[in-house]
Specification:
heterodimer, A: six-stranded mixed beta sheet
Chain lengths: 358, 300
């Protein structure tokens, strides 16, 4: 987080309980003014509940929400200078595109001419030709167009913070990528604070300045996408980052450990020394694994059998089997593809592995 | 090479027509029932309206004398009473039922189905029997009056035979016909759309006016039309609870057919009133385009 930027929104020890179930458990973080902040977590991690508290649709059981230093726990959504783009978009089906965008302005009692001018500007900003779209019925718009209308409507409200409840999840991959970039562009050009919620870390990585990873109502890690990628705090975060290899290990003493493959334990070397008996996970990225040619050396080597290989364009992904039931994922550049067909020796350097708590 | 499309053999064409034939055959019993049970009697009534007064034959020279009678006498009064009572019933029911429908659709969970069953069960008992129950309640020294006298020493005269009690009866009898369409209408309003409006700064009243009401309009329209059409032809409420205080058009028609034995005049009155109701209903429908409200058609 950019320390110089003042926090626009502070979440202090916020807990939300529904009966006996704790959806959000003592969460604290701050969002800086002008930041693109993303809350990411699997379904059931409490991210939507947290978001609903931030916009005012739920009240925290305990804790404080401070917007520009003012406590807003009990402030209703229509009194907050924040606005949310819903997962369902929640466009008004009985209104045209133009009337949807003008809605917050009409509520505020702005004159019709001013409303129209503003709606026209916003539609242009979002690449919707106002001549074609202003009078169009929202129910006739495509998925991507509806996204843009929803964003235009939220921007018309001119909120201090714009919240997003994974609005892009229903779109196909290509359109989603386009809109992610557009969203980032709009955030940059409007200098607004965006707070995005998603279950896709990939989406979070593309757009965000900072990411908070939630698990069962608790923030596991918070930081810039690069930081989190380079040093995930634990195995959950690492796994959430994408396809990685996590080995169950038990330290036998010093830098030596046993890898529990499910059948027979394999002895491997660790990048750091730990007390004997400690159970940890060893993270090795698919791109850190390589096939070892005869005579070449690596920190660790294991004989494997190649099960499958898939082309990922510039890279090739291999699924290899260490012992039956225990597989690893290897990714190599196309130029470095293995010549081995079935049996091969796989290895990694100690520096490319990380010891994580589970 | 010939590029003409292959002509299907006659047999195939017959097969293609079979689903249509089956459809027509399956529909024919209902079509016949509607012809004999609805269209034919209606045409009879319309035609009877043009027969000379106090006659019982359909094969006579048509005349307009019944319509002259209607316009020269005060039947318009009972027609206005019927329309007025129906309109008031619709308005009162809208006001009463909308909050209840909203609660049933959005707030109550298990209680909603209980209320549905409770209200639907009341329909199992004949309307007349329920209304006579009310008579016992409201008559002089009845359940209400008697209780007030016994407990508080208040002398209450009969609460029957006035206009408010007629309206009360109509509101009570037609409540399910307004409530159930309204519940369906309110259910059509997505929660997130309401939340979005609220989030964009709208007050509760603005959300109701700009979101809830327009989006549940199909239910409002269907409920209002049902109640209007049913209550405009209502006869029992005015007769049982209202005594002779108010004469509705339906009881006028009834007395022409029974007491006065003037079928042609009764028919002419019926025809007039059917026409009047149709005009009112179509006017209402034209004002509110249901398909547009449902979002199937683009706004012009």
């Amino acid at each position: 987080m950019d320390e110089s930027a003042a926090p626009i929104l502070e979440v202090a020890n916020v807990t939300k309980r529904f009966g006996k179930f704790t959806a959000v458990n003592d969460v604290s973080f701050a969002i800086a003014d002008g930041e693109f902040f993303t809350l990411v977590g699997p379904s059931g991690s409490g991210k939507t509940t947290l978001l609903r508290m931030l916009v005012g649709m739920e009240k925290p059981t305990t804790g404080e929400l401070r917007l520009r230093g003012k406590i807003v726990n009990d402030l209703a959504p229509n009194k907050r200078p924040t606005c949310m783009v819903f997962q369902s978009l929640a466009l008004f089906p009985h209104m045209s595109v133009g009337k949807n965008v003008e809605f917050p302005l009409a509520i505020r009692g702005e004159r019709e001419g001013d409303r129209r001018t503003r709606a026209w500007e916003l539609l242009k900003l979002l690449h919707l030709d106002p001549n074609r779209y202003y009078d169009k019925n929202v129910t006739q718009c495509s998925g991507g167009e509806r996204q843009r209308v929803a964003l235009a409507r939220a921007l018309a409200y001119d909120p201090d913070i714009l919240f997003f409840d994974e609005p892009l999840s229903a779109l196909d991959a290509r359109l989603r990528k386009t809109l992610q970039k557009e969203l980032k562009d709009i955030q940059r050009s409007t200098k607004k604070t965006f707070c995005y919620v998603t279950h896709s870390l990939e989406e979070a990585m593309v757009m965000s300045d900072r990411v908070a990873i939630l698990r069962s109502g608790v923030i596991e890690q918070i930081g810039q996408p690069d930081e989190i990628y380079a040093s995930p705090k634990n195995a959950f975060v690492a796994e959430f980052m994408g396809e990685v290899n996590l080995l169950d290990i038990t330290v036998t003493g010093g830098t030596s450990a046993e890898w529990d493959t499910g059948r027979k334990p394999l002895v491997i070397n660790l990048p750091a020394s730990l007390d004997a008996g400690t159970k940890r996970k060893l993270l090795i990225r698919p791109e850190s694994l390589r096939f070892i040619a005869p005579g070449e050396s690596a920190g660790n080597t294991v004989p494997v059998r190649i099960l499958n290989q898939f082309s990922l364009g510039s890279r090739i992904q291999y699924h290899v089997e260490v012992v039956p039931g225990c597989t690893l994922t290897v990714e190599r550049l196309r130029e470095e593809r293995s010549t081995a067909t079935a049996e091969a020796l796989l290895g990694w350097d100690l520096a490319d592995s990380q010891i994580l708590e589970s | 090479m010939s590029d003409a499309l292959p002509v299907p053999p006659p047999k195939a064409r017959l097969l293609e027509r079979i689903p249509g034939l089956i459809g027509a055959l399956s529909a024919s019993p209902f079509a016949l029932l509607m012809m004999f049970g609805f269209v034919a009697p209606l045409l009879c009534v319309v035609w009877f309206g043009f027969m000379p007064s106090k006659t019982f034959s359909l094969v006579q020279t048509p005349t307009l004398e019944n319509y002259e009678t209607i316009f020269n006498q005060t039947y318009f009064k009972s027609a206005l009473w019927s329309l007025g009572l129906a309109a008031v019933t619709v308005v009162i029911l809208l006001v009463i039922c909308f909050p209840l429908a909203f609660a049933m659709a959005k707030i109550f969970r298990g209680a909603a189905s209980f209320i549905t069953y409770a209200i639907a069960t009341s329909l199992f008992v004949s309307e007349n029997i329920r209304l006579f129950g009310w008579v016992i309640g409201f008559m002089k020294k009845g359940v209400v009056g008697g209780t007030l006298e016994a407990w508080f020493g208040l002398q209450v005269d009969s609460l029957l035979y006035n206009i408010p009690v007629i309206i009360l009866g109509m509101v009570y009898v037609y409540l399910p016909f307004m409530l159930f369409p309204l519940v369906l209408g309110v259910k059509m309003v997505p929660d997130q759309v309401r939340e979005a409006a609220f989030d964009l700064g709208a007050s509760r009243w603005q959300v109701f006016k700009k979101i809830d009401l327009p989006l549940s309009m199909p239910g409002v329209m269907i409920g209002s039309l049902l109640v209007f059409v049913l209550s405009v032809g209502a006869i029992s409420e005015a007769k049982i609870l209202g005594g002779q205080k108010v004469v509705t058009i339906a009881s006028d028609i009834e007395s022409e057919f029974t007491y006065a034995q003037n079928w042609p005049l009764g028919s002419a009155l019926s025809t007039m009133f059917i026409a009047l109701t149709t005009v009112v209903v179509f006017f209402a429908l034209s004002r509110f385009d249901l398909e547009k409200l449902l979002g199937k058609k683009p706004a012009e």
